[in-house]
Design brief:
With 318 residues, this protein is of the alpha+beta class. It has helices at residues 46-59, 69-81, 119-130, 135-144, 150-156, 160-172, 176-186, 217-234, 311-315; strands at residues 4-5, 10-11, 18-20, 30-39, 88-90, 96-99, 110-117, 194-201, 205-213, 237-241, 244-249, 254-260, 263-264, 272-281, 296-305. Helix content is 32%, strand content 28%. Strands 3, 4, 5, 6, 12 and 13 form a six-stranded mixed β-sheet that branches. A three-stranded antiparallel β-sheet has the order 9-15-14, with helices on one face. Strands 1-2 form a two-stranded antiparallel ribbon. It is elongated and about 90 Å long. The two termini are 35 Å apart.
Length: 318
Amino acid sequence: MPPFTPASREFSSPLPQLRFPKDNPSNYKGVIEFRLVRIETPTVNLQLVGRVANQLADDGTGTAQNGTGGGADFQSGSAAAVLPGRKEFPSAYPNVTLYLPSVITFGDGMDYDNNVQLGTMGAVAEAAINAGGSLGDAVTKAVNAGLSSFTDLFKELPTQDLARLALVRGASYGGQLAGDIASATLRTTINPNRRTLFRGVRSREFRFSFKMIANSAAEAQEIDNIISFFRRQMYPTSVDAFGVSAGYKYPDPFRIDLKYGSAKVGTSILLSYLTSMDTIYNSSSMGFHVDGKPSEVDVNLSFFEERALARQDIEAGY
């Protein structure tokens, strides 16, 4: 395969598949296939955007108000401004097929907050709801029943323990130090009633590590082409204006398939973005081929799925 040409940002001939090992590929049944997916960039109505920009400039505030000016125009024309739906197409760039690494990790993670402090009122409200009350009634009971402070609680249930809690609570109004002194002296502290709350789902990250040792000049060139391909696809295209970079166009995501022969390995993977890449030359020895190419190259790739999963995705095989 001809070399990748950075200056032209293209390969210099029709694009075959990139593969490593290139020599005797049939000896490797376990492979990972990386296929670029081109997501069509929505087309916007330039006249509409221009009208909104002019109205923002006329307002002098840089903000279009809803119902008047640019805001109304933008909202009324939004359906025509952007192509409806998301369209995906196979990329014109080659697929990359690499051998299946010896270690493959599929990590699922959730976000929980384990330091949510309900306090006494919150705990009372929670208990009322769990007992069958409504949320509004529970909060009302927690406040109006005289439980807003341990002093009021002590009036209802006068005991030594509650008396000490009332004193600690009262001392805390004098500041953190006063509350800490009272708590240490009375050997009593206020229960914050911590709870663990579910906050969301983390997007899955996939990391693949490959050690590539070329057995021929063709394989050495293939390694160069693979590295250039991944690096190029990882970076965004700059949107330039007035001689400076004003923004970026999204890179295209990858469809990743792990297979052993015709069998799928692990779970399916959503479209994923290449987020980082490490290229290490000659990690175990300082050796070079006669053409100056290193004797071994380690490539580490990290991908994030484009969105977080839900239970329905798991049931669908992800």
